[in-house]
Amino acid sequence: MKRGSGDGSVDERYVPHHGDPTYTVAHYDLVVDYVPESNRLTGTAVLQVRAVEPLRRLRLDLNDLRVQKVLVDGVRAKYRQHRAWVSVEVGRELAAGEEAEVLVAYGGRPHPMRGLDGDAGWEELEEGSIVASQPHGAPSWFPCNDLPSVKAPFRMELSVPQAFSVVANGLPGETRRTAGRTIQVFDQPEPMATYLATVHVGDFVQVDQATSPVPVGIVVPPDRREQAVAALADQPAMVAYFHDVFGPYPFGRYLAVVTPDDLEIPLEAQGLSIFGPNLLHDGWDAQRLIAHELAHQWFGNSVTLGHWNDIWLHEGFACYAEWLWSEESGRESADEQAAHHHARLA
After folding, report:
1. Is 205-346 CATH 1.10.390.10?
2. What is the pLDDT, as a whole number, of residue 10?
3. What integer is the mean pLDDT of 93-114?
4. 160-217: pLDDT as tens digits
5. Minimal CB count within 10 Å: which of 66, 219, 224, 290?
6. Which contiguous run of DSSP H or E holds residue 219?
7. Rounded to two decimals, what is the model's pTM?
8. 16-203 domain in CATH 2.60.40.1730?
9. Exposure on the CB side of residue 148, measured as CA atoms within 13 A
10. What is the average pLDDT across 26-37?
11. DSSP assignment of 2-56, as one string?
């Protein structure tokens, strides 16, 4: 089933009722304050929106977080909030190609969103939080146009208690400390799909592994540092190899974020990947996943599907990258890996 018209239509078979094809977003600016003890999030999102077709209202995806106010070009706007989305009256007709600034102040207790393939989004941990939004969880923590084809640069200003660290997409910028809190700015200049936006709050240390072709490192709870360093020892070599065979690494840095809790599967975000400690060891089952998630930086994050029914393109390239790394690291050749997997289909 599709919603909309023409090339801007939305394929709803995989992620139904998300996104508005009548406009795109040129930039996101997110200011988020998070209190782990109460799982309370307060945020302000500024979206620079651009009409794809003439419009007088637009829809923002936002799940179970209460809107306090909406401004359009600095003027209070009428809006109607539903559980998973907000309808905003622009106050005038935007012509195709015309831009407007939409500010949304909001807050509440974020939690994962239900979807056809399970839960995704902001998840509270015993000490901190993680965000794993693929494919539908971005509206669990910020208002957005949640279509994978709508990619934009992001700026995030994140405030957490000083006892915690915070990691997000892009390069870290200004850091301020005030009233018992740390405020960290992250700048993601390369366009990013909303489902790839992520924030991790916890007790972390950073291990720098390499500086070329880009900075490469690990963000890990202190008690998991030794395990992570051993399991991810080949990560800089993987980055350098894929940089050679796929083309220049597309972002400013690459991090592996290790969560304090076990995870069912690893997951990539733009400029970083997320692993549970249960997924980190020196066996091939773990090493192939490290290569797989890294490969998504090229195929999935830099080059992104237009509709979710094309997700096989992301996963197919990442699986192929596993086989290439197998050969490069002295294990089975890519041809042997392909033959092995093809035989499993028979």
Report:
1. yes
2. 67
3. 98
4. 999 999 999 999 999 999 999 999 999 999 999 999 999 999 999 999 999 999 999 9
5. 66
6. strand 216-220
7. 0.95
8. yes
9. 26
10. 98
11. EESSGGG-EE-SSSTT---TTEEEEEEEEEEEEETTTTEEEEEEEEEEEESS-EE
